[in-house]
Amino acid sequence: MARRVAVIGAGSSGLTCIKCCLEEGLEPVCFESSDDIGGLWRFKEIPEPERSSTYRSLVTNTSKEMMCFSDLPMPAHFPNFMHNSQLLQYLQLYAAHFNLLQHIHFQTTVLSVKQSPDFACSGQWEVLTEDRDGLKKIHIFDAVLVCTGHYTKPVMPLKDFPGFETFKGEYCHSSEYKDPEPYKGKKVVVVGIGNSGADIAVELSRVAKKTFVSTRQGAWVIRRTSHKGCPFDITAFTRLLDLQGLLLPRRLINWVSERELNQKYDHRLYGLMPKHRLFDQIPVINDDLPACILLGVVVMKPHIQEFQGSTVAFVNGTKEEQIDAVVFCTGYNCSFPFLTASVFTGPGHNLNLYKHIFPPSLEHPTLAIIGLIEPWGPIMPMAEMQARWATQVITGNFSFSFLAYLSMLPSFCPSFPSPKHGNLLVEYIPYMDELANELGVRPNILRLLLTDPRLGFWVLFGPFTPCQYRLRGPGKWAGARNAILTVWDRVSQPMMTRVVPEPRPSRLPKLLVLSILLVAAIYAEKRHSKLLESPMAALNNWRMYVPAAVLRVLKT
């Protein structure tokens, strides 16, 4: 009989968990509290409590080739950076392609997840759910995969701003923001400069009377385009560059990369310069913020010192009067209200996760938290790799001693304080390779270079696409090779909507070469004629370059 696995959440992480369970012969049962799949990427006018929410204009920060699942590239006609509705469409295609919807129970909320009485022997869990009709039911599962993400509990640090109670204008968290229309003609302060803060500030600047961005630390800002207008992550994430990152000092890499960014727009001049180095935190991905600062429609400000009614005072002594609204882009807290205290360890209920997946306090590795990371790269393929590895552990396919690894904690286990964020930052390629190596799906580049040089070249020098992990091992996909070799076709197709004829090759280089050859020929002919008329005169000109022995021979 197949082992039953509860999957909590039907967002991008939940969907790939269902598929991975099916691949390993497990029986997944997914519980989704809303009425559809998509999670964060399903836009709703009215935010739902304890659920992630997004704004109408949200566009992805990673390109389609880098963020797709490893065995289903996104449609070639999709733009490289997609609107949230298009990414939702891809998730729907993914669910339909692998027949995942039949395993999902919609409008069913998980109230609690706790160990069964015989957990020490069975490793099973009791999951209490409530359906749309209010009917509660207890289920027994052999394992649980938590896929609720960490954008569920908005942070509103109102107490950190003295005098805020005197502010009579409008205020909200970015999770409640949907579009800029309510702020038309108003003076707005955006608190925070993460990706959401930058997007919202840029959008507000188009309709607001004035937009101010208050930031405590600043941020490095990167555009979505790089060399020749290609998606930045297509060129930034390659195995060759990752190898350079391992060999070169981190300070040198930071210095070179920061210098390159400042060549485009000086972060200090624009008021963006952060206190941290570039690769110490995830940068802001935004194409328009520097231009808005240049145009004066967005004004950068330091941290807020206090509110004085409708006046906002900043720590540098400046004040802005008649502020109408404040949008707090101050992030989220992690929240797992359905988990029991038994999975939390350490002071302050710290949740230590082995490889960012398994709570090590459990006797059996039958509960995994998927997608609880902040990666330097796309999160969807990383969540997929986590799901592939977790399902292999649950099925017992790994022979290593899980408890032996756990005995090495905390040195091998990153942690974060729950519910507050800690260090969830994960290096994209090293983390993927680490899990892939244990799964046996990491590509053998040397072997590829010897047996399939073209493919090996692309894997080493080309974009680091998730399809690389479907070339071998469990879950091998026959279409992986072609998907890797045709990346640039799918990148270029949505942009090639106007056929531009190739420019006719210029004749200037050919004419220049012919001219040089003609001049050389005329010069050579003149020299040759002088040599024939007076050989000894020509010889005298070259006397200093010819050995004396040769001259004696020529004179005789």
UniProtKB/TrEMBL annotation:
Record keywords, A-Z: Endoplasmic reticulum, FAD, Flavoprotein, Membrane, Monooxygenase, NADP, Oxidoreductase, Transmembrane, Transmembrane helix
Protein name, as recorded: Flavin-containing monooxygenase
Entry's family note: Belongs to the FMO family.
Cross-referenced Gene3D superfamilies: FAD/NAD(P)-binding domain
Localisation per UniProt entry: Endoplasmic reticulum membrane
Membrane-protein topology: Single-pass membrane protein
Catalysed reactions listed for this entry: N,N-dimethylaniline + NADPH + O2 + H(+) = N,N-dimethylaniline N-oxide + NADP(+) + H2O; trimethylamine + NADPH + O2 = trimethylamine N-oxide + NADP(+) + H2O; hypotaurine + NADH + O2 + H(+) = taurine + NAD(+) + H2O; hypotaurine + NADPH + O2 + H(+) = taurine + NADP(+) + H2O
One Pfam family linked to the record: FMO-like
Gene Ontology terms, MF aspect: flavin adenine dinucleotide binding; N,N-dimethylaniline monooxygenase activity; NADP binding; trimethylamine monooxygenase activity
Species the sequence originates in: Scleropages formosus (Asian bonytongue)
